[in-house]
Amino acid sequence: MPVRKAPVWTTGRKWVGNVVPLLVACPLLGVGVWTFLREGLVPSALIWLGAFPVVGWLAVNFLALMGNKGLRRQIENRFLAEKPETKGDKFFVGFSTPKYRDALDPHEDVGFLILGESDLEFYGGHLNFSFRRSSIQKVKFQANPHSFLFLGKFIRIEAEEDGSPVVVLVEARERKTLWGNRILTQQLRKQIQDYAQTPPGS
Fold first, then answer.
1. Residues 94, 170: contact at Cβ < 8 Å?
2. Cβ distance 88 to 114 under 8 Å?
3. CA distance 29 to 165
4. pTM of the entire structure?
5. pLDDT tens digit string along 126-175?
6. Terminal Cα distance for the chain, rounded
């Protein structure tokens, strides 16, 4: 898998998606704990403590993708400059390989998944990956950390290239919210399945 210089999906960008939701939700937890320690399990303490997971979920959903639009534009400009003749449907996605682990974000890179005439390709901020359309064997869902909040999941694409198994994981990042991308990921899985099952040129 060739790697290009100057990745745009950086640790700093990953931190933003985690820190901002925490800054919104954690004060509620702090007030709830402070009220409980001072007054015991009174109704106001329960309200503050109960508000924490609700506001936390909403904050993650709406704020975890801060900067996503600019990130998409930056990678798209590079993509159009390097591969202006590329044809096929393309989708902005988070991409991972099965062994990748990161406490900050489940996406190893972000970029475009291109359903080309003969090849499925990922063009990312620092990773490139492609294999033949005809080599795709299975397209299914796989849980990721977003799944525990019911806000996302991976599409697992399994292929076989020259007798060797190949697995990649993608998740839509086209929409402004995680919930919106969860819905789009469901639709994208069906589109990839249809793409894999349709012979090139049909």
1. yes
2. yes
3. 46
4. 0.89
5. 899 899 999 999 999 999 999 999 999 999 999 998 889 999 999 999 99
6. 29
